[in-house]
Amino acid sequence: MFLVFGCDFQRREIKQAITHWMGKKIVFSDSLQCKIYGKDTSAYLLNEHKYKIFHYVDTNGCSECQLKFYDWGRLQRQIDSLNADISIVFVVFAKHYVPIEISQRINKFGTPIFYDKSGKMGRINDFSFNPKYKTFLLDSSNHVVGVGNPALNPQIWAFYQKIVQSSPSSTCP
After folding, report:
1. H helical segments located in the chain
2. Residues 6+ apart with CB under 8 A from 145
3. Averaged pLDDT for residues 121-127
4. Residues in CB range of 59: below 8 A, 6 or more apart
5. What is the band of 13 on the pLDDT scale with cuts at 50, 70, 90?
6. Disulfide-capable partner of 114 in 13, 26, 91, 167 (CB 3.0 to 4.6 Å)?
7. Closest to 118 in 3D by CA, of 11, 32, 24, 1
8. pLDDT over 70 (residue 169)
9. Is the overall model pTM greater than 0.85, yes or no?
10. Contact assessment for residue 140 and residue 106, using Cβ atoms and an 8 Å cutoff
């Protein structure tokens, strides 16, 4: 009986999260610092891609548990092989960034990371405490068109691919 109740509760929770986030605009804080391996970079433009897989991490708990750079690197290689107009946008709020930078180097995750040192972006967007609901597929105007972590769930990645592939091309004949 507990198993059935648990599954039903989880389905309702997922449905509520999707209903809450779909169509909402993610607002990017002007105080973000963009870094690769801990070094400042300005080479990354947030709006240069048609789609963004946005991942917000609040590392007040276990950093490694939430970052999963190896899995994200694998996803980045899949995106690159598809030649899809998708970028990965990592925004991290942490007390200490050195362990994150070390993990990024160890995992050879060369995707830029935006540091939200004051947690402003988390407050502006009122992200859930549940890490499952801090990853979104955003369109070019930063509206949520998908909810879930494609680096950890192949079904969500397949869903994101369908959205991207079904969208009308931005080029004119």
Report:
1. 2-21, 63-67, 69-82, 98-106, 120-125, 154-166
2. 22, 51, 136, 137, 138, 139, 163
3. 93
4. 66, 67, 92, 93, 94, 95, 100
5. confident
6. 91
7. 32
8. no
9. yes
10. no
